[in-house]
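Our working data are protein records whose layout never changes between entries. The record below serves as our worked example for the rest of this section:
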Amino acid sequence: MVSMPSETATDAQLVQNLVEAGMDVMRINCAHDGPAEWAAMVDNLRRAEQTLGWSCRVAMDLAGPRLRTGTLRASGRVQRLAPQRDCFGRLARPGRVWLTPAEAVAPTPADLRLRLQISGGLFGRIAVGDALDFIDARGQAHCLQVREARGASWVAEIEQTAYVEEATSVTARRGGESVGTGAFINVPEIILPIALAVGDPLVLTRVDAPGQGAERAADGTIVTPAQVHCTLAAAFECARPGHAVWFDDGKIGGVVAANDGERITVTITRTGPKGAKLRAEKGVMAECAMLNKGPKIVETVRFLADIIDRMDEHYSKQRATLRRLAVADLEDLKGGN
């Protein structure tokens, strides 16, 4: 299957080349172009079939609503620093960190992956060989060894895994004596996915606010269910108890339990063996929204109805089945439904 770019409506040779290369299904995305272009794509395909003596099917993909999960709330700011270890857990190579002044941030070099910004004017006092001491998020003492100067920034190494939080205080020492202090700032945000298991409730909200995972009591029971914004307002008008909902390309399944117009409560019915993790900006397929196929539905159904009208008699079974669906959809749409 190959999705057709717009130029296949005017470039017959491109279509023939695609068939020669092995295309056996032409997919026309009805969210783009229009009936005239779609017909031209099909005509170019039929000519290619006659020229090559091969056959290729056509799949018309009707445009659907952009239904996705919203953003998720950040859990905090933390940067994990870690060395490389061998299969026995022994140190293979220290973790290398780019240290750059917060007042004049320099891009991270290609040979480095980790970066920390330091504020407080500490950079004017650092020298190769200095030790940068700090306490990480777990309350453990750690040390970054300054190994190399690159312009106004430095390369440092660490031999133990550390978790650096926002505004962590750091002291530079030389020969055991302090030469200055500063702080790690602008540490990256950490956004954790929503953990879900079969039976968990998940609330979809009309209000566009960052989502978050469930709050649980000490015994694991849910105090406040997980929630996330649903980007399609129309879903809150049509969702009914019992409607199926799928998230993240069908990896997570659920059933609507309730809908008050502002919050749709979904009971999770399907995940992987170890549960599932729902992230921001993931696709949602809702039973109530699948028939809402967007602004091009009218011209698409008309185009399909015309194709069906011109089918040969040996396609009568497909014609009858599809024709009833097309007419029903079109009449509903004419009535504004």
Remarks:
- The longest strand covers residues 141-150.
- Residues 76-189 form a domain with the M1 Pyruvate Kinase; Domain 3 fold (CATH 2.40.33).
